[in-house]
Amino acid sequence: MKPEICLFCTKETAEGLHIFQAVICRECEGTLIRTDTTHPRYPEYVEKLKRIWPACEAGY
Ligand SMILES: [Zn+2]
Questions:
Q1: Where does the source fall among the domains of life (predicted)?
Q2: What does the alpha-carbon distance between residue 8 and residue 27 come to, in Å, rounded to a whole number?
């Protein structure tokens, strides 16, 4: 499997969570799941998700 670039940390990841054309590595997937909505970086994650997932925008 060819390495892909993680959407969040831009590191190469051989396996990760695929959302459309983007991939999120296991590490960032875990971070995202654990990140509380009040976390300072949460809006940043949401913004990144919005870029690849327009339906996400409608949900917020
Ligand atoms: Zn990552």
A1: Bacteria
A2: 10
Rounded distance from Cα 58 to ligand 1 centre (Å): 24
The domain limits of the chain are 4-59
Per-residue pLDDT of the chain (60 residues; tens, 9 = 90+): 678 999 889 999 988 888 877 899 999 988 888 888 898 988 888 888 877 766 555 554
Kindly give the distance from the C-alpha atom of residue 59 to the centroid of ligand 1, in angstroms, as a whole number.
Answer: 23
Tell me, in angstroms, the distance from the centre of ligand 1 to residue 25's CA.
4
**How far does the centroid of ligand 1 lie from the alpha carbon of residue 49, in Å?**
13
What is the Cα–Cα distance from 21 to 34, expressed in whole angstroms?
23
